[in-house]
Amino acid sequence: xxxxxxxxxxxxxxxxxxxxxxACYHHYNQTRVIGMPKVEIRLPGAADRKxxxxxxxxxxxxxxxxxxxxxxxxxxxxxxxxxxxDCPPTLLLxxxxxxxxxxxxxxxxxxxxxxxxxxxxxxxxxxxxxAFDLVLPKVSPPAHAALYYTExxxxxxx
Length: 158
Description:
Order of helices and strands: EHHHHEHEH
Strand content: 5-15%
Helix content: 25-40%
Shape: globular
Largest sheet: 3 strands, parallel
Mean pLDDT: 89
Number of helices: 6
CATH class of the largest domain: Alpha Beta
Radius of gyration: 18 Å
Distance between the termini: 23 Å
CATH architecture of the largest domain: 3-Layer(aba) Sandwich
């Protein structure tokens, strides 16, 4: 179906993406759940909502263990560990402080991209938290700015 089509990635845009799962593990204090039973993640029905909310953000459930148990999986799942000169041009958008994704990891990804010669742009919105574009997006200055810069970045990639 896609024979003869160019399926290469021409650009990447990350809105507060977890770029280093190892850093996220520490940032979100995942050691607090060591020893707790692992849970199966299911689509939330009325009875499961409270239980699933209590498990929100558990990286051990998502990645098959804690950082000290499966460090190679955390590295494999972390974009910061896969930077090379052939990475696509990248736009990184993040608020600071971010309750879920450490901004230091995003800065490190940006540094590595630039070091490898990859065109990269990092925009950090002060006093904007995770999902800053989803809370009151019609009146949120960071949401408007992020959309503005995303449109311009992607226009350059066409």
